Amino acid sequence: MSEYLNALGERAKKASIILGTLSEEEKNKAIFQIAEDLKIFANEIITSNKFDVDNLIAGGKGLNMIDRLTLNEKRIEEMAEGAKQVTQLKDPVGEVVESFTRPNGLVISKVRVPLGVVGIIYESRPNVTVDAAMLCLKAGNAVILRGGSEAINSNKVLVNVIAKALEKSGLPKDSVQLIEQTDREIATQFMRLNKYVDVLIPRGGAGLIKAILENATIPVIETGTGNCHVYVDNEADLNIANDIVINAKTQRPSVCNAMETLLVDAEIAEEYLPVIAGKLMEKNVEIRGCNRTSEILGSSGIVLKNADETDWETEYNDLILAVKVISGVEEAIEHINKYGTRHSECIVSENKEKINIFQKKVDAACVYANASTRFTDGFEFGYGAEIGISNQKLHARGPMGLKELTTIKYIISGTGQIRG
Amino acid sequence: MSEYLNALGERAKKASIILGTLSEEEKNKAIFQIAEDLKIFANEIITSNKFDVDNLIAGGKGLNMIDRLTLNEKRIEEMAEGAKQVTQLKDPVGEVVESFTRPNGLVISKVRVPLGVVGIIYESRPNVTVDAAMLCLKAGNAVILRGGSEAINSNKVLVNVIAKALEKSGLPKDSVQLIEQTDREIATQFMRLNKYVDVLIPRGGAGLIKAILENATIPVIETGTGNCHVYVDNEADLNIANDIVINAKTQRPSVCNAMETLLVDAEIAEEYLPVIAGKLMEKNVEIRGCNRTSEILGSSGIVLKNADETDWETEYNDLILAVKVISGVEEAIEHINKYGTRHSECIVSENKEKINIFQKKVDAACVYANASTRFTDGFEFGYGAEIGISNQKLHARGPMGLKELTTIKYIISGTGQIRG
Question: Does some domain include residue A327?
Answer without folding.
Answer: yes
